[in-house]
Amino acid sequence: MKTMANKKLIAAGLLFLLAHLPIMAQGTKQFTLDDLMWGGSNYWNIQPRSVFTTWWGDRLVETKVEELSLLFDNKGKKVEKNATLCSLADINAALDTAAFGKAAFPAANGTVVRVRADKGTVDYDWTKKQIVFSMLRPEGNLQATKTAPVTSALAYVKDYNIYIRTREGKDLTVTTDGTRELQYGLSVHRNEFGINEGLFWSPKGNLLAFYRMDQSMVTDFPLIDIFHRVAQLAPEKYPMAGMTSHKVTVGIFNPATGQTVYLKAGDPTDRYFTNIAWSPDESTVYMFELPRTQDKAELVAYDAATGERKGVLYTETNARYVEPMNPIVFLPWDASKFVMQSRRDGYNHFYLFDTTGKQLAQLTKGAFEVIDFLGFNEQTKSIVYLANEQSPVRHNLYTVNVATGKRQLLDNGEGVHRASLSAGGRFLCDRWSKPDTYRQVDFINTSNGKKQAVQERIATPWADFNVPEITGGSIKAADGTTDLYYRLVKPVGFDPAKKYPTVVYVYGGPHANNVEESWNFAARPWEIYMAQRGYVLFVIDNRGSQYRGFDFESCTHRHLGDIEMQDQMQGVEFLKTLPYVDADRLGVHGWSFGGYMTTNLMCSYPDVFKVGVAGGPVIDWKYYEVMYGERYMDTPQENPEGYESSSLLPKAKNLKGRLQIIVGLNDGTCVLQHSLAFLRACEDAGTQPDYFVYPGQEHNMMGRDMVHLHERITRYFDDYLK
């Protein structure tokens, strides 16, 4: 007899399935991993030709291997006839040799294109057929580069020091004492808080802000490099939760004077500095500052000339955590006002402030997330952005008028969209898909939403292959009220009278989601491969994952792994209601946080899951890094019960099924101490996991090893689950 909970699960799933037609098989060919995986030898051969574009002001330009051609003019009119601007042959005629790399346009109304050549960057004027500017690439291994707006000066990092090559070819040395322990111009705080770089030019390119990170006090984790006659140490500075972290400061270099000032932010011990932004007049630097507890964020202004602290413009607190992810952005038509993103009301939204720190308006509001700020339409004085207002699993394009707060949907309201905005914000190049529609590219007028196709509609690239049936749906979370979205992949040649082995693919952690209404519901290539081999694949985004609001994500605070597993088990209960799922042959697989979830599920529900493959797993959160770990768990000293209950080491004794753990030898994200400690715990308890290591690889396998990895994962399920 089915329980009431199971009846609710079935009803919720059926209602959603009726609204979402399955993606059906189309051809007869069988995939190989070389066809499906990015590192495979045949992957690109079966992909349809994509159109690659860049913006020339408000004109859309196609960047081909051999030429640049105009697609849409600055009035939004499609160019029907051949409109070649210049070709690789033209540039090579003016230059000895040039590899036609990424193209850009330095000026919106000029006739110059900037391309990356073999030995540097060149600006080519196609009307004069001349090279009007060139800059040789600095020699050696560059750790980071950033080109200045307007001045075209190049800032770069080499051997942990910052240098600048001016447009005139003059070389400037910004720092001299950089080492592995004292780094300049690189990303800091282990890429948390939205940080992915360490060089920040001012709007006119006259000043350079940069990070300086002293990590001499941070413990080295002893990784090794085996590619020598005798293996050598390749240590990673790794601040574990509750332990000593690095210290970051922010400098500002003036190329005109050769002088550097540092922002007078006070003692950097146990503090985070993030989301650096410049005022339009280059006089002020803004950044968000957080204490190590991460329960407060302050937006602070600094004088760019002196480094003096001007004051705090905004403060946000939350008992769980505050996580600023985006710098403020000034209105192009009013330098006294800026837009800030915050989740202060429970969802990520836009807020309008003036430079005194006064909030003028909340520009977006509702039970949805602003996903990406794309820019401004300066004519209509609107923000162009991406949000999931239509559905948690859809990402759609909108504008919101800064003066009135009126929102306008720009696309069809379906699927998942990714777009780039023209310089003036008048047009979008929109790349989108939905479950039964492969990638499409549209040109959108952001003022009125008018759409035009950029290229002919693309059919599925897999028309000749036997693609499985893929559906999407929703069930209720373990709390009985929250909707969770899933993807279900049926075996190729599905027979409803048969019972199939089933693999649950899981991630489950913050800042990620697996299910969306893009092509094939965002099914991973390996899922297609496994369906071809006779497996059911099931993926569900539990509470704790992204884009569902702060409460949805942060409900796991201080006890990672509990609520997530409860929701995944709701998915298992749903699977058990499907007559073709063999409940005695359930497997689970995931990577990173998903590796943690895989191991946790195998050890917490040893009679449910028969086989698991855990990649790069976290095992005990006290071994994980400070920034991420303490945001979601606090420190081990503050939350000993949470760390103890979330550790998988005491659960090693519960392992019954076959569990394979796969790691990269040089993983500097989930260091080997996690998996090795788990092996030791299993040895002590007499349980028997399997273990495989990729020498030379880090947290994720790259290149041909991706094919090898997925063959290994597949073989493990074939050997023990099928």
Share of β-strand residues: 25-35%
Structural class: alpha+beta
Strand runs, count: 45
- Helix residue percentage: 10-25%
The parts where pLDDT drops under 50 for at least 5 residues are 1-25
Overall shape: it is globular
Mean pLDDT: 93
What is the CA–CA distance across the termini? 28 Å
Number of helices: 11
Radius of gyration: 27 Å
For the biggest β-sheet, the strand order reads 38-39-41-40-42-43-44-45
Describe the main β-sheet briefly: 8 strands, mixed
Structure report:
The protein is α+β, with helices and mostly antiparallel strands. The chain contains eleven helices and 45 strands. It has an eight-stranded mixed beta sheet with strand order 38-39-41-40-42-43-44-45, with helices on both faces. Strands 13, 14, 15, 20 and 21 form a five-stranded antiparallel beta sheet that branches. The chain has a four-stranded antiparallel beta sheet with strand order 1-2-3-4. The longest helix is centred in the N-terminal third of the chain and has 16 residues, at 4-19. Residues 1-25 have low confidence and may be disordered.
Outline the fold blueprint.
Layout: H1 4-19, H2 33-36, E1 53-56, E2 59-63, E3 67-72, E4 84-87, H3 88-94, E5 103-104, E6 112-117, E7 120-125, E8 130-136, E9 144-147, E10 154-158, E11 161-165, E12 171-173, E13 182-184, E14 199-201, E15 208-214, E16 220-221, E17 224-225, E18 232-233, E19 236-237, E20 247-254, E21 259-262, E22 271-278, E23 284-291, E24 296-303, E25 309-317, E26 329-331, E27 334-342, E28 349-354, E29 359-362, E30 370-377, E31 382-387, E32 396-401, E33 407-409, E34 416-421, E35 427-434, E36 437-445, E37 451-453, E38 470-476, E39 483-489, E40 500-505, H4 525-532, E41 536-540, H5 550-554, H6 562-576, E42 581-591, H7 593-604, E43 611-615, H8 626-633, H9 640-646, E44 658-664, H10 673-685, E45 690-694, H11 705-720
